Amino acid sequence: MPTASSASSRRIARQIIELICEAKFEIGHHLREQHLADALGVSRTPVRAGLKELTQMEVVQARPHQGFYLLKSVEQLQALNIEQPKSVDQTLYEQLVRDRIQGVLDAQFTQTQIAQRYNADRGVLTRTLLKLADDGLIARRTGQGWRFLQTLNTDIALQNGYGFRLMIEPSALLSTQFHIDRHQLKRCRAQHLRLITHPDITQVAPKELFETDAEFHEMLAEASGNLFIHQAIVQQNRLRRLMEFASYNNKRRVREWCEEHVAILDAIRDNDKEQAALLMKNHLQIAYDQVANKVPKA
């Protein structure tokens, strides 16, 4: 089972690569820990862990008493995909939801049935079921067992989700408490530009595309200064990760939404929150309309 530290070092390693691509460092560049720590807004310890992760991937070279040096070109780094390790809990969570969507699991079930079917450890299963309940996907039955909620009707759920996000995400950008870290904004923008200019976006893993999309929306929700907005968008992304993953195979649309994200980031950078909110509304409306066209009319 992956540890929290391994997941953290992977995340930092990915952010270091984004910085390298943004700065267009050449092979042989000396990657100084303190410079990277300042740019990422973290201490040197997690940066060192991220650099060690990149050393194992032969992206950088660790030279004794000298530091870390870049081994790959920006073009090579753009084709690199760093997978975040999944926890056992997360794996079971996703399996249960996917099996329900595909009709493999009945709407009602007991904890014993799930434990036997998936050979799940009691602790893992308990945490997973509680997480599903917190996310509004299942509820306890009267008496014994659990039941899946109608949330998992994919097209209707996605339409409702985008409708909900249309109500809160544009408004979140107009919050008087809105504040975003400029380094964070810059890193996010660089990641989107990397995808827009990627020589063959069909080779980019859907997982990386989704995470770029999700992190953008969660970053702005957190910047609103409203904890409830941030929690709501995090939950929406959990649902989208399970139900909307296939749409990331539409590479033309990926470039379009990347460009829409960049336009929103540019408006925020220029302190034009009204324009950013309008662009966010238009961006989400496109997604809402695409999903709404799939839902059968009553």
Describe this protein's structure.
By secondary structure, the protein is mostly helical. The chain is built from 13 helices and 6 strands. The protein has a 3-stranded antiparallel beta sheet. A 3-stranded antiparallel beta sheet has the order 4-6-5. A hairpin with a 5-residue loop joins strand 5 and strand 6. Helix 5 (88-101) crosses helix 7 and helix 9 runs antiparallel to helix 10 (206-223). It starts with a helix and ends in a 6-residue tail after the last helix. The model has no long low-confidence stretch (mean pLDDT 85).
Give a brief rundown of this model.
The chain has 13 helices and 6 strands. It is mainly alpha-helical and 298 residues long. The strands form 2 sheets. The protein has a 3-stranded antiparallel sheet. It has a 3-stranded antiparallel sheet with strand order 4-6-5.
Notable characteristics:
mainly alpha; 298 residues; globular; 3-stranded antiparallel β-sheet
Quantity of strands, as a count = 6
Query: Based on the structure, what is the oligomeric state of the protein chains?
Result: single chain
Largest sheet: 3 strands, antiparallel
Estimated share of beta-strand residues: 5-15%
CA-based gyration radius: 21 Å
- Structural class designation: mainly alpha
Q: Which strand order does the major sheet show? A: 1-3-2
Please tell me what the overall shape is. Answer: globular
Unreliable residue runs: none
Helix content: 55-70%
- Mean residue pLDDT: 85
Return the string of H and E elements: HEHHEEHHEHHEEHHHHHH
Amino-to-carboxy terminus distance: 46 Å
Number of helices: 13
